[in-house]
Amino acid sequence: MKVSRGLKYQHRLQQLIFYGLLLIVVASVAVLSHRYDFTADWTANHRHSLSPATIELLEILDSPVTIEVFISPGHGYQQAIESLLGRYQQHSTQLQIRYIDPVTQPQRVRELAIQQQAEMVVSGQQGQQHVLDLSEQSLSNAIINVSRHTLPTLIFITGHGERDIVGDNSFDMAQWRHQLSVIGFDVQSLSIQDAAQHSNTDDNAVWVIASSQQLWPAADIAILQNHLQQGGNLLWLSEPETDIGLSSISEQLNLNFIPGTIIDPNAGKLGLEDPRFVIVTDYANHPVTSTLSSVTLLPIAHAIQIADTTSDWQATELMQSQSDSWSALGQLTPQQPETVLFDEALDIPGPLLLGVLLERSISKNQQQRVAVLGDGDFVSNLYLGNAANLELAMALTNWLAADDKAIQIPLIKTADSQLLLSELQALLIGFGFLLFLPLTLLMIGIGFWWSRKRR
Questions:
Q1: pTM of the entire structure?
Q2: Residue 122, beta-bridge partner list
Q3: Which of 55, 112, 247, 285 has the fewest Cβ atoms surrounding its Cβ within 10 A?
Q4: Which domains does the chain have, with CATH numbers?
């Protein structure tokens, strides 16, 4: 076929137009990619993106924060830590990142007592905090702590047989105190008289009543009543047959404690033989419970009741027991619960309220917060590490300290990719590799041999 000169010119012109348009598209994409940034995280647990709470924290960060990273060049953690910090820098200009080689700067290592490779030291107007793991939760909480204008104070009231915040016994709370100190709380243990004097200089201090075992004197009750009347925040961890003499405080808070101990027959599903362990799966839609990763376990709890819904307190029913639980009256011995049965004439059927959050406005700029729970064992050394007990305890204290940003920063966990096979499935796979796959390959080989032989 003979191609005319005109067709040749048209073909060349089409080529020139095509390459010109291609260059324009490439240049446009280059300009747009330089001006705009778009990323997508398709991983199962969004491990390559930050939570909305962390992004909000970074966007409102109003003071400089320096992060010193102690890592040797070429270390295995270098790429992971650069990726994590890069995501943080995308949302704030207040962050200053410094990478320090521990080998070339040993003086700085000794000065900050660096313990390991990839350790980060976060510095701000509230001092310094070390971060030992590459998790969003640890780094974001460190940024919150060093950038706070004031450190929140948590005062544990003593003098009435309360739990010891420095004791190592199973009943004590040394582990919880350590966790609170790590995230920046000023944790103190004071008599109620000393706590009252401290609160005169720190209006935001949160008082904690941790399972009082002895009678409260009238003078101490008066101080506690005044603390609440003046807008003080309170965390009350109650227990069956404890907090003797505090009925006037529960009346002030518009609450009643239901007599008896809650029995939960679902405890056996977790391998617990004692049904006095209450498994909590029903939570309110509230920031305190929004990031809980699993159930919480409350050992030997009693129920709470809101007395009057018309009071000035805004009450939130934080969590409750399951519908087949009940409150059993009378003393239960450690041997008895295995055989205890619901008594329609005496016991109180579930579901039963286990935790209440109370909130009211004291002034235009001050909000009073109170949390009352029907159990204190869940924060003890023995049970703090079970289920989501620690997550609940930390979220409660952050909420009481009005630090809602810290509540919502989740712990990002690796998605479970474990393959569980039944005996039959494992047997079939084993026979498949041992017999079926070799026989299949043999038959394919015989087929090729036969087809070539017939040619």
A1: 0.70
A2: 67, 129
A3: 285
A4: 52-145 (3.40.30.10), 152-407 (3.40.50.880)
